[in-house]
Amino acid sequence: MSVISNQIGKRPRAVGDWSSRDLYFSLLAPSGFSKGRADSAGFLAAHLKHTSQHFTDVPAHPEQLEAWLGEHNEAVGSQFQEYLAARKAGQPRWFFSSKAHALYFLRVVAPTKMVDGAWLYGLTRHWHDARFTSLLKIYLEELGDGVEAMNHVAMYRKLLKVNECEDWKALDDKFFTQGAVQLALAANTETHLPEVIGFNLGYEQLPLHLLITAYELQELNIDPYYFTLHTTIDNAHSGHARAAVGAVTEAMPTFGSSRHYMERIMAGVKLNDAGLGTLDLIKHFDLLGEVVRVLQSKASIGQYMHSNRCMIDGKTINEWLAEPEQVARLLNVMEKTGWIKRHQDPEQSRFWQVIHAEKAPMFGVFTAYERQVIYDWIAGDVLETLPKVARLGAPWRRVAQAPEPEVLGNVYDLRSGRRLAERLLEANDFNQEQLSLDRYLQGLGAKRMDFLIDWLSPAKHHTSLGLCATRYFKAYMDTSYLHGDSPQ
């Protein structure tokens, strides 16, 4: 039974009554959009009400959007130049105090980035309606047009993997709110179309924090490409920011009252304020608190792993770890006994040597992210004076993307609408799923788009079959627009 059904005759549920995390994962589950639509509609209503009084500088009149777009980008560009001038004059980073801080940000923003573009998914069922061409183009580009290297979710997943920050699914509820809102919009597009268009309008505008984030990630030896891509693809001249403005007027004839339509557009814009924003997430970082959390996460297993000969302040390590709430005190004791020498090169601390040195007794216990947190905390006040490679690791190198293979199996000649037979896949053990999909689609005829749409969902589009389905979907859709009818 839906949670909402228990609320009949009671007050509407407020923002604080919902678990964003539970809703987030329920909508990503199989059949999540159909099973969770009622709950997601209530969740969306609560956040629309909560953000309704928020301020936005987006104009409420469509004829003013073009001028606002130019002014907004000019203002952001000017502010970024001020930032660069301040940094050149010797100011420290504005956002990230250390590499651990930056990696923390990548981890806690993951629930939002792992559903990037999701708010537009509901429009895929209207692929044949030219009024939504701009929005569908944005969605397909978020999906990389079916190319894994350019699929935004696949890109972010790789960024997390490289930096060993993949445990984001265990984050607290508050980090899932914005992602849950985006999924709720996708699940309720049929009843919230202006809100979806408005949310897209607000989300696709270039923010100052994106430029600063990319700049500082590169300084800290973290590949910024996911973020720099969004500064280019969202550009105001020909990118998503421009398309988002155009989409507002393209869909307007659907609604009888332009005033009511724009009121709902503005409500959607304000939904961008739901949950913790980028600056909130950056300010949320507490280095000592994160060290304690990391050690507590190891305690349930670590309490059985140490020899009883290893004692600190009269207790074995196992005894210290048996009660996770003692971890903060354990750190204090390790400082007093010299195991940890704060505000010195971590290489001078016995604890760091135990977890990081060559053939260290605890090698592999801590992830790269967790080691960075511990390193930065131990170094403390001297962190920025330590050798760059020691505190930041080797400089990242973007791996050149391999060219797309000639044999794709779903490449189409858009003039004829026919599949290019000479590029058909040769069967091997690694492409059986795609071959099966190819054969299945050939038998579906006009129903093939409905089948493909399911694979373009936020839960599936970044998988191998989802990427394949995206390429099919785009080819069929482009063929349809070219010939003015449904592809066969």
Question: How would you explain this protein's 3D organization?
Answer:
This protein has 24 helices and 4 strands. It has a two-stranded antiparallel ribbon. A two-stranded antiparallel sheet has the order 3-4. The longest helix is centred in the N-terminal third of the chain and has 24 residues. It is globular. The protein starts with 19 loop residues before the first helix and ends in a 5-residue tail after the last helix. The relative contact order is 0.12. The N terminus is likely disordered.
Secondary structure blueprint with pairings:
Elements: H1 20-28, H2 32-35, H3 37-51, H4 65-88, H5 99-108, H6 110-113, H7 133-142, H8 152-162, H9 177-187, H10 193-203, H11 208-219, H12 225-233, H13 240-251, H14 258-270, H15 278-283, H16 287-302, E1 311-312, E2 315-316, H17 317-321, H18 327-336, H19 350-356, H20 368-379, H21 388-392, E3 412-413, E4 418-419, H22 432-442, H23 448-455, H24 464-483
Antiparallel strand pairs: 1-2, 3-4
Helix pairs in contact: 1-9, 3-9, 5-20, 7-13, 10-13, 10-14, 11-12, 16-20, 23-24
Briefly say what this structure is:
It contains 24 helices and four strands. It has 488 residues and is mainly α. Strand 3 and strand 4 (418-419) form a beta hairpin.
